[in-house]
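Aim 2 progress update. The chain analyzed this quarter is reproduced below.
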Amino acid sequence: MENSAEKTNTKSTPDKSVKIREAYIDYLLEHGAAPASVYHFMKILKMKEGVFYEYYNSFSAIEKDIWKGYFDKTLSRIQSDSVYNEYTVREKLLAFYYTWIEVLRDNRSYVTYSVNGAKRQNLRRMNMDFLSSFKTSFLDYVNDLIAEGKETEEIVDRPIVGSRYDDGLWQQLLFVLKFWVNDDSKGFERTDAAIEKAVNLSFDLMSRSALDAAFDFARFLYQGRK
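Predicted structure tokens:
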């Protein structure tokens, strides 16, 4: 008797959430604005409105998912590289940025639309709106890098500011994003240079410096006088 499991059609069904995301991006870029309603949007897709709510509760949720997808794709690419784990923390962050820009380049029209829309409203809202899920994942990632950097002594855990390193790196990411959106150089060469300089500066600030050595020496002299 034939096993019933063998009768099962194993052909995968395309994820409707992917179709919804792609159609939403197309609509935004073609019309310059979000659809008037979920009903109208799903009618264009020839799907029932209820299908939309199986995956998203609003258009804003789609945008967050799109940007979270950019993060996930970036992380997957860099971690699949066999030499990634051999990198220093500084090199890992550089690899993240360079790969992230490659991912964004494949979606530049939508990325530019999103960033310019945020500028029109208030750039600070980028921290809270469509980048909110992306930000959560990015902060988890850089906090792991920071912890690793402290273990390898690439990063110094300074009082007060040491707990704000992740916020500084988030502001750095926003800088890179805005710089790339406005970059008109061939092959985005200026963005590559900006990434290298920004990351090197941040690690110079987070690593042990001459100021740290001077402070330690002064403390040593002070304790010796007691």
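Residues 59-79 form the longest helix (21 residues). Residues 67-209 form one domain. These observations will guide the mutagenesis experiments scheduled for the next reporting period.
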